Each structure stands twice: as C-alpha cells, then as structure tokens.
Amino acid sequence: MQYGYFDDRKKEYVIETPATPLPWINYLGSQEFFSLISNTAGGYCFYRDAKLQRLLRYRYNNVPADIGGRFFYVKEAGKAPWSPTFHPVDAELDAYRCRHGMGYTVFETEKDGLAAKLTFFVPIGETCEVQQILFRNRSDQEKIFRFTAAVEWCLWNTVDDSTNFQRNLNIGEVEVEGSVIYHKTEYRERRDHYAYYGVNAPIAGFDTDRDTFLGTFGHFGNPQAIRTGKTGDFIAHGGAPMAGLGLDVTLEPGEETSFVFVLGYGQNPRDRKFLSPGVIRKDTANRVLEKFSTDAAVEAGLAELAEYWNDLLGIYTLESSDAKLDRMVNIWHQYQCMVTFNMSRSASYFESGTGRGMGFRDSCQDLLGFVHMAPERARERIIDIASVQWADGSTYHQYQPLTKRGNNDVGSGFNDDPLWLVACTWAYIAETGDWSILDHPTPFDNGPGSEAPLMEHLRRSVNYTKTHLGPHGLPLIGRADWNDCLNLNCFSEEPGESFQTTGPSEGPVAESVFIAGMFVLYGGQYAKLCRHLGLNEEAAEVEEAVAKMVETTKGPGWDGQWFVRAYDAFGGIVGSNSCD
Amino acid sequence: MQYGYFDDRKKEYVIETPATPLPWINYLGSQEFFSLISNTAGGYCFYRDAKLQRLLRYRYNNVPADIGGRFFYVKEAGKAPWSPTFHPVDAELDAYRCRHGMGYTVFETEKDGLAAKLTFFVPIGETCEVQQILFRNRSDQEKIFRFTAAVEWCLWNTVDDSTNFQRNLNIGEVEVEGSVIYHKTEYRERRDHYAYYGVNAPIAGFDTDRDTFLGTFGHFGNPQAIRTGKTGDFIAHGGAPMAGLGLDVTLEPGEETSFVFVLGYGQNPRDRKFLSPGVIRKDTANRVLEKFSTDAAVEAGLAELAEYWNDLLGIYTLESSDAKLDRMVNIWHQYQCMVTFNMSRSASYFESGTGRGMGFRDSCQDLLGFVHMAPERARERIIDIASVQWADGSTYHQYQPLTKRGNNDVGSGFNDDPLWLVACTWAYIAETGDWSILDHPTPFDNGPGSEAPLMEHLRRSVNYTKTHLGPHGLPLIGRADWNDCLNLNCFSEEPGESFQTTGPSEGPVAESVFIAGMFVLYGGQYAKLCRHLGLNEEAAEVEEAVAKMVETTKGPGWDGQWFVRAYDAFGGIVGSNSCD
Fold first, then answer.
1. pTM of the entire predicted model
2. Whose CB has fewer CB within 10 Å in chain B, the N or C terminal residue?
3. How much is the ipTM here?
C-alpha cells in the first residue's frame, strides 16, 4: 500500500495520510542534539545520549502508539479542538501532508478554513529543535482561536523516569519566565543542564503540571486546559512536569501569522549555575531564543541546513538511467547512513535507547556508508571503536556513546567483531589516503597507558581470528557472528537468561564460515596495509593464512552445492544441502 | 474530600465514584498469585515475582492513568459502548459502586437499565484470579448485547517487555481452544509456564492480537472490535498478544445471567510440557477452569476466602469505645500488614516491581504486624531475611523474592538494618514462644556451608553496632539509617549516581542517634535472649553496652532541649535546636 511518494527535486518523502500502519519517522540533528519525529509529530529529543539525557518523555509500546512527546492543539470557541499534526486529538482534517526532508519535517494541514504549516528542524551547531508554526485564515470569516503547544518532560534518565516513581513523582522542577518554561529537575542538586521550551510571542497562559493540564481521566487527546480554555498557570513541584504554552490568535480572512518555538538544551559551568538563589542562569537559552526569534532566522537556519546536506550529498553522485536507483544512492541511502552514524541504532522507535548503546560491529559497518561524507568524524569514530578492543584482540560487543566505554553486561565473544575494525579502517584510508591514522595512539579497553598505534589493534584483530580456529580450521564463532541469532555456543534454558551471552564466549568447536569469508577479505586488506608499511614478512604470513582459509572454505566450508553456514558446538553442520 | 466510606459489617471500603484523584487499589491473593486491582479494574497480576513472572501488561505513569491490564465492554446495537468498570470506555454510568473487601473487589454498576456486578478474587490455594460477571436486565425491554472481556499479556519479564522491542514484538505466541486463550510466549523455548484467560460459556469470537482488536489509532477506550462488533478470530504471532473473549447475551426484562472468567497461571513438568508438537499441556488450566465453572463454585471460593480472613483477623481483636480505632486495629491495619507481608512493597502502583525486590529493614518491620496471624510464615521469612546477612553482621539492604539472594547493586551499609533482625526475631518469640528458631541453621549471604544458628546472626547484628561507633560513641550511620534520605556519607555529584550508594558505605564520622535508640531497645531484647539461653556473661556485656549507649544518648545525643538526630560526616550536628 502506498502512503506517499518521494519528491526527488525537494529530496522529501511526502506522506499523505496520518493513518500509516506504523509511525513513519524522521531523524533530526547532526551533532549533539537529536530529535525523532513521526508523521504525527510523535517522538523524543535527547542531547548526546538517548538514555541519560533525554528531554521528552516518550512511551514505547503505547496505546495508541505514537502519542507524545509533542502536542499541538487549536481551539476555536464553540468548536471541538483539533491537532495540526493529527495526533493527539485525532480530529479528521480537511487537508494533511507530512514531508520528511533532509534534517527537517514539515506538516501542512487544514481544518475549517484554518491552514497550518509546522516546520521542525535541529539547526546546525545548536542544541535545540526549532518549531515554526504558520497559520493562515483561508475562510471568509474572522478566526479567533487558542493555539497550545506542549511537551512532557522526561526527568533526564529515561530508565529511572519510567520505573522509579516513589522518587520521580517528587523531584520535578520548573521555572517560568516570560514565554519560556525551563525544566530544571535535579539542577539544584547535581545537574548543570536544563531544558527549555519557549516561543517568540506573549503567551496567554501556561501549564507546567501534566495532571492539571489534563484533568481527571484526562488524556492528551482531550486535555481539560484545552477543553475549558483555562491554563493552570501553576508552577509544578513534583508530579509530571510539562511545558504548555497557550497563545491567543485572531486572524482576519486571508491573514496569516507565525510563531517560532524553541525546544532546547542548555548547560552552564558548574560554578556559575545560578543567577540568584533558585534561579538558573539562562544564557544559552536566551541566546538561542533570541537567535530564532524571527521567521527570517528560521529561513536562514533552514537554508544553512539545506546547504549542509547539499554539501554532504554532493560529494558522491550517481547518474544512471534508473531514476529510482539514483534517488536511492544519491539521497536516501546517504541520508540514512548519516543518521545511523549519529544514532548507531541506539535510539529509534524499536531500539528504546535505554540500554545497549552503540554496537562495535554496527559502528564499523555504518562507517563504510558515511566515510566519504564525514571523513574527520569517521576517523574519530574509528579511534573510539578501537579503544574498546581488548588487548587479546577481542572486543566489547557494545559501548556507550557518552562514556565511550564497553558494556560489561554483554562483554566480548562475538568473533566477527574484531575483523570489522580492519574493514572500516581500510575504507577510511581508501577514501582519504590518510595513512597517519594507523599511527594514532589508541588504548585497549580505554585503559590509560595501554595506548598502541591503531595498526597494532588491526594486527591483534587479524591474529585473534588466526589463533581462534576450530576443528575444521574455520574460525571459531564464539557467541555469534554477523547473524546475531546464530548463538551456537549459548544454551539458555532459564527464562530471563540471555540467548546471546549464556554459555561460554569461547566455545572450542562451533565454527563460522561467515567469519572465514571475512578473514579472506579483511585479512587480505590487512596484508596490503602491511605491504604499504613495508612489513613484507608479516604481509606474507597473513597472505598465507588467507590462502589457507580460502582452501579451508572450499573444503569443509563447501558441501558441493552450497557454502556451509557453520558447524555447531557438537560438530554438526548448519546450513548445508544435507540439512533437513 | 470523601470518595466513599468503610462498611464495618462487611469489612469493605466502598468507593462511590470512579473519579478518585488517584486509583484506589486493592491487593488480591495470599500465597503465590497476586493481583492489583483499582477502583476502575486497572492493575496487573503476577506469580510470585512482580518483575519476572508478570501476567498482565501494565503501563506505569500512563496517560490516562490506570488503563489496563483488564478491559470490559458492553455494546448494545445502535448504542455507544460502556465499561461496567467505568474505565476504559469512560462512559458515564447511571450507577457506580466499587467495594474493596478482604481479598476481593466488587463492582456494581448500571447503564440504560442493564445492571452489572463484577466480582474479582484470587481463590485460596489456586494460582488464578476469578472474575464473576452478573448482568441483570432492569429495563422493560429485551436487551441484546455483546459483552467483551479482555486482557493484554505481559511477555513475563516486565522490564524486557517494556524495553526490548526488537525482540518482544517478534515472540508473542498464543493458543486458542474453545473459550480459553492461552498465552505461551517462550514456552516452546525455555518456559514451563503459561497464562490463560477463559470463560464458562461459548464465545462468539475472540481476539489475540492487540492491533487487530484496537484498529488503526485505536485505544482501549474505543477498540475497533467493539465498535464494529467484529472480533479478529486471529491467532497472534508476535506483536502485542492479548486475550479478548466476546459473548453474545440476550436478556428478557428482569432476567439475569452470569459468567465466570478465570485468569490463571499454569505450570508443567519440564519433560511433559507438550500434548503434541506445538500444543501445550493444559492440565492445570483445565482443572481450575472446571473447578470455577459455576456460580456455586465462585460462592464457595468466596466463602473459603471469607473464612480465611475471619480466622486471620479473629486472632487479635480490640474492643474500645472508639469504633474507628477498632476498625483500624481489627481490620484495616491487619489486612494491610498481610498485604505488606506478601508484597513487601516490591509491587504497587508506585513501586513498579521491576527492580528493588524486598527490603531487609522493611521485611523485618512488616513482620511485627503479621507475626500473630501467620507465625509459621513469619518464621520462614525471618530465616530468609537472616540468610542475606553478611558474616560481619552487616546485611544486604534488599533481596529478590524469587531467588532470595541479596541485591549487589545496592549492597550493604545501611547501619540500622542489622538490629531490625533482632526486632523481628524477638517479636516472633514473644508471640509464639518458639525458642527453637534461635537454633535454626542459617547461612550468611546464602553461602552453602556457612550455616550458623540464628542466634549467631543476632549476635553479629548486635556486635556490628557495638563495634561501629563514631567519635561521640554513637553508632556510625553508614549509608543511611531508618530515614533513607539521611545519606550523610554519600556525596553524589554526577547525574545518575545514586544518592544512597555513592560514597563509602562505612564513613568514619557520621553518627545516628536513631540507631543509638535502636541499640538501647533491641540490644536490651538481645540481652534477654542471652539470659534465657543461660549466656549470662554475654548478657551482662551487652547490658553494659546498652547502659553506656543510654548515657551517650543523654550526652552528645541530647542538646538540652531535643534529642539530636545525627552528626554528619564533618562532625556537624543535624537536627538540633542549634540548627538554623
């Protein structure tokens, strides 16, 4: 079923109905501040870490799906409210279009002669989401309405936020100044950061307490404050803090008006947190709010964003006879690769962003897709990745983006991991010609003093595979290879045990033909790096090991018709034509 | 504000409006199967462990609050649906009453001449919740309606269920046989338990997939299956599995009918899990469904429950001139104490039941309230608690009910903890005269081979306090005393650090006058135990230490007007008349 189309000229996916079976989301942001936004404006924002520094409360697996964390309401006197993003009110709209573009999302909707255009983007170099809202009266009558924009705050750590109620129902704190609501939970105690939501116009009223805003049995589809037109104008202490900003608007027929909202993250030096006792220093917020206080500034921000993406996407361009292939290669794949670089699958609608952090294997692979667009950042990423490698050449399977340390709960033993480090380093050098990366001092397991040139990390990666071969001479699979589900050494019987990590990380028998293939490819690349560096003896040794692996793969790795997939912990064959 | 009243004769709290500011909940169950149920039938069930074996999906901090995991709908042709428990439809009712009684909850509601009575309880000795639903046509016209009862399954581990979507959206499995829906996620792989929801009447249709049941943008207040009268009759694979049972009912004026639903937990021997490939063995479910297939059986179950509670509450009775005091002491406090014994605050609407398990201190204290009602179970609990004590006399602060092992993430160092073990043991002996408990071989930190008589555990508790005194001779507070928030040795500066466990568990300076008071009381009790056992020398030593503590408390523990609360890590006084 077709819910929209791709506009090649504008590089936008256009969704023509809010009734998509699953939310269709875009990812905004390219440096430190990221927003997820669906085709009904659901989603959340975070600063650098989706678990620890989340701005908006988002409920996964919610019913209905995709309600929150952004809420917009239009209410004319005597009429039922509606949302210019369809959710949360779900009132039928006379027109609806959502455009997911390169780093921005636009909604164009209309009801009863009132047209709305909402543009969302994370400006280059800023830690905020800008929301521009335009209204145009297309009817022949004066329109008088209350427009309310609201967000529900996450109390920063999203895991704690969704489990520790005896604490988090008591700690919410906000501050209101003019048309800006500041979320400052734990700021007094031990945070130097706050969130804010403000608008470039005088407000008619505000809400900072969700229960007051919603009323008894209230839900975001039908808040009391919207129904009655009465904001709480109340400073929340504890409970569920939110930021609701109410604006009274009058539009003559044909008239239009606009507002710019900024949803941002601000940070202060530890010793200069307060302006006066209890009053937070708002320099960051003030500067950003001031910067985006006009439509011209929004246009400039969007233009800068467009230029950023044009530059990135202009580096590599394919012109083929197939428009769809061109679009896929020139726009969509490269865009997705940059998103994956930013998020590394740690935050989405299915990865809740609450635990696993970034994958070692994932991050290496993703790099192949963006290295030509962001070579400096790719270099930095390679060093980060290599720094979670262990001294024996194995690696942590995951690491946390904020601390850059490996995850102990999953640990090591995914035996394809080490070779991916060769893959991404090779790709980086092939793209940039920057051989100096091989000299970069890089620690093992982030241990100060353990630094060795990156080349030494690659060496240990290759050696790890070379020295971990099974009975057929194929690489031992450990906990799994690229197919995460091929957990041949893991025998989980008890509920709650991990299928991936229960059992030895190093089984002595189970072998992976996939890793054999990797060794042929990346071992060969490593040998070429050796040759370039004049390490001819080492190159020859590796080449010999690679040649042997080719033979082994053609031997026990080939069943006469198929490449075998693996041998299990009992020596049994997996993925052969001889299998049932 | 008054939302109801207590009916002393029936021992029931009667709530007369669904519009209570917070859900008013009852706790059902007394052995292994527990249900939380609010005055709108919200809540969840679990078997033994609220985190690992949860039957119903419940969303904490939900909007609106208290939607799920039980859903009931009545739909007459041509009329809007309504819920006889008010939620989730929220249609205005002509009559509403909820009665929270001793181990059961009853709803009596009415709309448009159709009266409903819903009774919920967990039968003695069974691992299920029984739901009896009675309808009576009070109008003068025939009533034809579809009644639908539904639950949403939790995929057992509630933490995984609410975070690991890339997995749990793919694993849901159900089976349907007659009028029973079986939830069997992970049963094939590594569980020997399943959940079921069935009714003692033929069904008109069923739903096992939430998205099918609700429809696009659907919510539990307005499911597609209810609106259209069309069940999905679809076997879920993955997604969000649920159990919806639709019954077609026709009632003449004045006529009434009833249905009995059973929501249960079943378990099989590991080697006899399947009846045939893919078909689970249903012996437990069948027996229980058969047992509660008639109204007479429900009445018998309720009578047994009433007798159970009459017996428990009949053990101690107060007759004073104050009816409210009598009610409090004779009914409500004792009921609450038994609930606390069962749950030990690990599961409620505010403790999400996902992490902390049971508190050492809490469990010791709670025992004082129920020891006279359940002395055998109190004895067992004391041994469980003492088994998480460390060899040095300190203890884990929390432990898990299923494994009975201490929680490493919180660890030890709450220096009031050890003395509570004396408190509860003393209370047990005082109530029962069962001195033999002091001889019970009890391990330290659950270590096999480390068993020592319980008396030795009490000795180490007392010695721990005696040997951990600060500069004023008062007991060192460690991480905190009974006031969890008095974390005098904890200096948390980074977000995400625990206020309770960041810093040394043993500070050399900060002292607690509260623990001094505990030592006076429980040290004295311990000395009496020594005297009884003929350990006169030890008794004298302890009595001397207690006498000295009395003097110390009157010295540096008394500021001339107040008992001081504590001394902080810098020797500064806390809670004195000299404090600002």
1. 0.93
2. C
3. 0.91
